[in-house]
Design a protein that fits this description.
Length: 463
């Protein structure tokens, strides 16, 4: 079960073996309500903790499993944690993008704080209480989107996958995204209908349109990549180029992706616009962002998170700093204003090239970037006279080998690690403790309102 606190049952209200009345006690990782009945975990869509519902029980998800779905027959008492009806998206029932969309803002934050606390407990770290948390606005806060295409009978649709399936939920307007994302995706569908272009079928590995990836950095800095499988007709490509111009897409591409599976962007990019990248502004710096550039999707929250990490690292004009998994140099440039020299490490060659370009545009001369596997270079880099280290690793975290490599850092070095996955947080904090680091503070950042995850900044010091 996702939540280990006591699960509620209401045995006095049981009507028969197929229908029961129960109080929802927890949430699954997909946002379904859970309660326990006769040793089984019952998963009920469209419920939140403290809802009291009459539920019809269905057979287990898998034969022999103690997990089974329940179907709401009646909402008896609504939870105080539930969002107001006008705050709930019209696509909530089907779309898998907002598993916490039925919770009010206060309860979303409390739930994410609870998840962070559980992850700290798993790492053997106690005594922090409820972690500090920085929230987010609940509209127009996801500035990157991936829309999927699928055949819908004789038609073609775009949208997001439904929870626990690859069935499509057609979404024209997502309240969390800029409005042009959905409008452009719908127009692509219309142009496809006009030219006889179909959607890719993941089972037969045939068909054309796969995904449309879009990013918005404000001030008409818009990027889009249309991914396809089978060759596209020339007239359709021309129509897409016209759409990109109409929607003020500054950097627009098509990309042939013939790989099986769910890898989103791979293959040669063909530009349909003059520009190949867009500009993003963050913490007083300007960054160039291409199709493969990693940037946080919520720039307002990202800036607050980076400022907190930088504040923890402090400044020392006589000593150096490291930026691990530096991407296009986002935090490297910020650190360069505070330290004698900063070295950024990133495994993606294109990102390192962009980082050098961003540094040059900003007039930063004390930043160096290394394109390498962190595990191969960190043992030598950690022997430098360092004052601070920042790391923003992928969901998999730093990993045990890299945590061990940091053991050679001297006493007093500040370490700020941004975790986007709590499993990695639990594992890496154990390893960092073994390497001589003490956790001093933790703060969550709601990068993805209504989604299950959050970013967690851990501030440590070498003992």
């Amino acid at each position: 079960m996702t939540d280990k606190h006591k699960v509620s049952e209401v045995p006095d209200c049981i009507q028969d073996e197929d229908q029961i009345v129960a109080e929802i006690a927890a949430l699954s990782e997909k946002g379904e309500g859970i309660f326990e009945y006769k040793g089984d975990e019952i998963y009920v869509k469209n419920t939140v903790p403290q809802d009291v519902v009459r539920v019809k029980l269905h057979p287990p998800f898998v034969k022999g499993s103690r997990r089974r779905p329940g179907e709401i027959i009646e909402m008896i008492n609504s939870s105080p944690k539930r969002a107001l009806q006008e705050e709930i998206c019209i696509h909530q029932d089907l779309c898998g993008g907002c598993p916490l969309g039925l919770l009010n803002v206060k309860s979303q934050i409390e739930y994410k704080q609870h998840l962070i606390t559980k992850a700290l407990d798993k790492a053997g770290i106690c005594g922090f209480g409820k972690p500090a948390f920085t929230g987010s606005v609940q509209k127009n806060c996801r500035h990157k989107s991936i829309r999927f295409f699928k055949g819908c009978g004789d038609d073609l649709c775009q949208g997001f996958y439904q929870s626990r399936s690859h069935e499509l939920c057609r979404v024209v307007n997502c309240p969390l995204e800029p409005a042009w994302f959905g409008k452009l995706a719908e127009e692509v569908c219309q142009k496809a209908r006009e030219t006889g272009v179909n959607a890719y079928d993941e089972f037969s590995a045939q068909g054309c349109l796969r995904t449309l990836t879009m990013r918005d950095c404000g001030l008409e800095e818009r990027l889009a990549v249309l991914s396809y499988n089978d060759p596209l007709p020339k007239d359709f490509v021309e129509k897409i180029a016209e759409l990109f111009q109409e929607y003020q897409v500054k950097a627009g591409f098509i990309q042939r992706n013939q790989t099986r599976g769910n890898r989103i962007m791979t293959g040669e990019l063909k530009p349909l616009t003059k520009d190949l990248a867009i500009r993003a502004e963050l913490c007083g710096f300007e960054f160039e962002a291409g199709p493969y550039t990693f940037l946080q999707v919520n720039p307002v929250v990202a800036q607050k998170m980076y400022e907190a990490a930088l504040a923890w690292c402090g400044q020392d004009p006589k000593r150096e700093a490291l930026d691990l998994c530096c991407g296009c140099g986002t935090m490297t440039l910020m650190l360069a204003k505070r330290f004698k020299k900063v070295t950024g490490v990133e495994i993606v060659n294109e990102a390192v090239k962009a980082a050098y370009g961003n540094a040059a545009k900003a007039g930063i001369t004390n930043a160096e970037f290394i394109a390498a596997d962190l595990q191969k270079v960190l043992p030598d880099l950690s022997r430098k006279d360092l004052a601070a280290v920042i790391a923003d690793p992928p969901r998999s975290g730093l990993g045990s080998a890299n945590c061990r490599a940091l053991k050679s850092l001297h006493k007093g070095v500040k370490l700020a690690v941004i975790f986007c996955g709590l499993k990695a947080l639990s594992r890496d904090l154990k390893d960092l403790a073994d390497a001589g680091f003490m956790l001093k503070a933790v703060r969550g950042f709601d990068m993805f309102p209504k989604a299950m995850g959050c970013e967690t900044l851990c501030m440590l010091e070498k003992q």
